[in-house]
Amino acid sequence: MRCHKVDYKIIGHDIQMVEIALDADEAVIAEAGAMTYLEQDICFETKMGDGSDSGVMGKLFGLGKRMLTGESVFLTHFTNEGKQKRHVAFAAPYPGSVIALNLADLGEEVICQKDAFLAAALGTQVDIAFHKKLGAGFFGGEGFILQRLRGDGMAFMHAGGTVIKKTLNDTTLRLDTGCLVGFSGDIDYSIAMSGGLKSMLFGGEGLFLATLTGTGSVWIQSMPFSRLAERVAHHSANSTQGED
Fold first, then answer.
1. What is the 3-state secondary structure (H, E, C) of the chain?
2. Which CATH superfamily is domain 7-243 in?
């Protein structure tokens, strides 16, 4: 199944959203709660799976993996049922940037953090990508559950803070697991302990680092939501203690 060909526009600077233009009978899929507005003639329905043509067994296997990892098995499908071009817009629930991915130019596959996927043209396969080294994945926190986006159309990820795109040319890059947004499918991914005991306990850099090796693109975020939430909670705790 080939992906629908959709036009889009990214709106804003520091807190972005993506507005997608749909011709008649065109559709996009999105995680629940990502939609900000839609125009007339666009209808939406929550369905099991991404709607891609992956066969009955493939769909059941994909749904089973999402249930196993605690992810919702439902995605919202937005379809233009009118005759004129209409628009629907999406944004993530925290400040950041929207990353547009032309999967046809990225080997038709991108791996991303489980919370990074925002929306994609209908026909895109949204699947859970299990890490080969399960032990490292479990201890690596955010690095374990990743999503695989496959197709030949447009897909959109969301990242917190500033986004940096790194291009690897048979090289290696190490980074905090939470700062990794996504990478092209031909890059090898692993998780390793960040260093010695003293560095892990007092360095403040986290216990584990993601290591990416190969040739392709890597997207990095400066402020993952987990880090933002931790800092807000720490500030609130200190404020409460000060009042006491």
1. CCCCCCEEEEECCCCCEEEEEECCCCEEEECCCCEEEECCCEEEEEEECCCCCCCHHHHHHHHHHHHHCCCCCEEEEEEECCCCCEEEEECCCCCEEEEEEEHHHCCCEEEEECCCEEEEECCCEEEEECCCCHHHHHHCHHHCCEEEEECCCEEEEEEECCEEEEEEEEEEEEEEHHHEEEEECCEEEEEEECCCHHHHHHCCCCCEEEEEEEEEEEEEECCCHHHHHHHHHHHHHHHHHHHC
2. Mitochondrial biogenesis AIM24 (3.60.160.10)
